[in-house]
Amino acid sequence: MRARLLISLLLVSGLFLYLFPAGALVTVDAPPQITLLAPAGVDAGTGAFTLNVSGTGFLPAPVIEWNGTPLLTDIVSETVVSAVVPAEYTRSPGSAAITVSRGDGVSRSALVTFLIAPAPNPAPRIQSVSPGSLLVGSRDQVLLVNGSGFIRESEFLWNGHPCEIKGEDFSSLSVVIPAAYLKNEGSAWVQVQNPGPGGGSSDVVRVIILPLQGELPVITRISPLTVAAGGPSFTLEVTGGYFTNGTVCLWNETTLKTKVIDQGHIQTIVPAGLFPNPGTGLIQVFVPKKGLSAPFVMPVSVHQDPAPVFANMTPVSVPVGSDGFTLTVNGEGFTENTVLLWNAEARSTRFKSPGRLFAAIPASDLALPGTVTITLLNPPPGGGTSAGLGFQIIGSQTAAVAGVDTVNASVSQVNTSVPMENLGGVSVPVSSLDPFNNEYVEEDSGSAYLDTPAGAISVNPFAQSEEDDEFVAMPSSGIIHLDPFVESEEL
User: Which stretch, 15-19, 42-46, 70-74, 441-445, has highest mean pLDDT?
Assistant: First the structure.
């Protein structure tokens, strides 16, 4: 019988030629196919981000490639893979070719373009202009514009007209104001604009054009605009014109130590004692040999205390019948007027700082077991009441010692002393058990001592002798068991 060999498929790879007999089933996997990129693009300078690629034919070992460079790839599902794209890959606008291979160097998807768009320009913001006033008829002047969001393409407008920006430092702008813009008295509106994408216009700021020198000093703006009565000292900034060396600022006719920044700006500190009550502060500027400016009014508003914030306290519990003690309270917004409320009743409170108070708790508040709600009150104006926290007065059947919270509570401290009157309500002869050899150890009458946090005892508080006391060692439990009704050794 003549054997027939039919060549059904020829695959050439390198120097090898593969021949398959007729009838053989040859499966050729389709290459990976990308159907979606998420995101499809980013702005230049975005930083590192996660790229999710959806498609088919990714398994078993998919690798996302960025312009041919493999990225560390995670398999999210059969149809989704992801990789973190380093920040340096997207620093400049442009595009990238994204492909997915199966790690065999042969099966690779068609490329999909990932767009890297120019980063949007920031919106500019003017914080201050110095000087805030210029003299009419002056030569070209330079304004220093402080703010944020300034870029190389920023444009400065004087009453809508562009002006030259000098220098390369865009943390502030040095702007040349031509003499032609200073021919008339009055004011000018200045603004900074940034082109798109993004960008926008800043708020407008007014610059005063003053008459020829020889006139009285002028105040055009103050900062802050208002102050609360009884508040702390604050820094006052005054903008205007005709300020020279020796200029002083006055608050309700009280002379203040003044720093002259330039001919349009001065700065001073207003002491706390000058505005104790609501009303107004009259601000004036005096320039030697020239005179006193017209007053500029600053409202002095009613002081508003904040609402207190109750964070925590120490201690958080005491045994019933304890002596009076001092409670330490931590939080925010405390003032000299803050009061601690014990179940809505005021207690003597001492202010330490805006974050700490001390309150005197008398013994009469600790006569009965239970939970007390503690809040803090700042009286009006403003003010308010804090959220409440619970304070525990631990009853006679509760082990009121550090490390033991209640009946059957776990023991958390070595050598914790548990007074018997707190365990059973009566004083009886007591022994303690050494949990390592299960032998009784005589101790002072009225106390049982735990020598290890691993040990535990079960106490019969009504026992009348050492033989009737029931101490059972349970080294692994760390639990105190109280049974006030046992009348014999049989538990």
Answer: 70-74
**Separation between Cα atoms, residue 136 and residue 95, nearest integer Å:** 54
The third-level CATH classification (topology) of the domain covering 218-301 is: Immunoglobulin-like (2.60.40)
Residue type, 440: Y
Task: Say yes or no: domain 309-394 is CATH 3.40.47.10.
Answer: no
Extents of the domains making up the chain: 33-117, 125-210, 218-301, 309-394, 396-491
Whole-angstrom Cα distance, residue 119 to residue 113? 18
- Let me know if the fold of 125-210 is the same as that of 218-301: yes
pLDDT at 90 over 50: yes
- The CATH number of 125-210, from 1.10.760.10, 2.60.40.10, 2.170.270.10, 2.102.10.10, is 2.60.40.10
Q: Give the model's pLDDT for residue 67.
A: 95
- What's the mean pLDDT in 344-359? 94
CB 111 within 8 A of CB 94: no
The residue ranges of DSSP E strands in 39-139, in sequence order, are 41-43, 49-56, 63-66, 69-70, 73-77, 80-85, 94-101, 112-117, 125-130, 133-135
Degrees to nearest 5, angle at CA 445 with 439 and 451: 45
Is the preceding peptide bond at 60 cis, omega within 30 degrees of 0? yes
Q: Residue 317: pLDDT above 60?
A: yes
Given a cut of 50, whether residue 408 has pLDDT beyond it is no
Mean pLDDT value across residues 135-147: 84
pLDDT tens digits along 29-51: 689 999 999 999 998 888 899 99
Contact 387, 342 (CB under 8 A): no
Indicate the residue type of 272: A
Q: In 317-367, at which residue ranges do the beta strands (DSSP E only) sit? A: 317-319, 325-332, 339-342, 345-347, 349-353, 356-361
User: Domain 33-117 belongs to what architecture?
Assistant: Sandwich (2.60)
Rounded CA gap, 341 and 376, in Å? 6
The whole-model pTM stands at 0.38
DSSP 374-441: EEEEEPSSB-EEPPPEEEEEE-TTS--BTTB-STTPBP-STT-EEEHHHHTSS----EEEETTTTEEE
